[in-house]
Fold this protein.
Amino acid sequence: MNTKSRILDSALTLFSEKGYHSVSVAEIADAVGIKAPSLYKHYKSKRDIFNGILSEMQTRYEKQTATLQMNGSNAAVDADIFSSVSEDTLIQMGIGLFTYFLHDDYVCRFRKMLTIEQFHNAELTTLYTKQYTDDPLSYQSRIFSMLGTCGLFRPANADVMALHFYAPLYLLLTLCDREPAREPEALQLLEQHIRQFNQIYKKENAQ
Amino acid sequence: MNTKSRILDSALTLFSEKGYHSVSVAEIADAVGIKAPSLYKHYKSKRDIFNGILSEMQTRYEKQTATLQMNGSNAAVDADIFSSVSEDTLIQMGIGLFTYFLHDDYVCRFRKMLTIEQFHNAELTTLYTKQYTDDPLSYQSRIFSMLGTCGLFRPANADVMALHFYAPLYLLLTLCDREPAREPEALQLLEQHIRQFNQIYKKENAQ
DNA sequence: GTCTATAAGAAGATAGAC
DNA sequence: GTCTATCTTCTTATAGAC
């Protein structure tokens, strides 16, 4: 990895733990293994490093959702996928989303930074809401709406179902961001949650 | 309100929006209407102001939960209260908790500060988890456990029920902290959530 | 592209007058 | 208890040698 990327990476780590203002340029440089003034050959200011992180995250997120949305939004509603939605599939879907959010190094650090800076920076306010509220909810809502149409799930308000499915995942995610040691406990609760969710909403004859 | 309290109040407002490090002592003094050096007659350092906020919040929280827990933990399980749990009561309970968390000026600003500082300060990590994860979940779990024992609700894992009930409330709360303009939308979704929760878990004959 | 030296300013905190 | 003046340290950023 070149120096320019390493600066971005080290800065993100530091910003995500201590917040933008609590991190000095010297600290970033130190983490990279260079002196502070050298850093200005790659970025014209501290804010410029921050913007670099932001724009890289935007790119990554768009790429990631482009892949995800395909499964849920257009005509490619693969009947084979959804008709075979078993309890285990649903659990896998939830755990998969959860562990991706929690363990992807870049996603995780960026989420922490978003969390820390969300009230301070209007752009990050919007971004946080989009990435961790609106997008997951509308994605889940679309899925449950389809599953309802297919007759696999009881007819119910898909938005509320999405909230029921996603909100526990969100709460446990924020818990593990704070206290990583509690991940096993969170995973167990998550699995129980999805199992119970499935029992509640799934039509008996559909199982 | 005396100057010492006004300093605490102004500091909390600023810390909750920008974070501890992004706020200067001069800024706090300015908000109070005095000069920075005058502030040091009331607190010996910037950190001392922060600690003052923390200890006041601890006091308030303990007072608040002492009131709440009484309804849920001991022998004073008032059968009259719980036997009359209707859908409207449940909605009132959820909306009440939600609007208290969201509109109590001190609670709201302190939660924002917790949110911002949660990764930076070990004490606040613990405090956040306690106040917005463990305490509400165990409180709700105890209530649903009782309601199950009473035969009013279907037998189900009370911890998961608590998660189902509280997590959407938590997600919508963090949304409104970021974007207060979305409160009406959040309240509507919250009410739909509780209504559906009630339909799912409540025994038909108990209604 | 990295370094040392350094400027320019902001920040936390103190001294001492009133 | 509040002020002005000041100290010290930290921080962002630039200049210029190598």
Observations:
- Chain A has a mean pLDDT of 91.
- Chain A touches chain B at residues 16-22, 112, 115-116, 118-120, 125, 128-129, 133, 156-157, 159-160, 163-164, 166-168, 170-171, 174-175, 177-179, 189, 192-193, 196-197, 200 (CB under 8 Å).
- Residues 24-26, 36-37, 40, 44-46 of chain A lie near DNA strand D (CB under 10 Å from a C1').
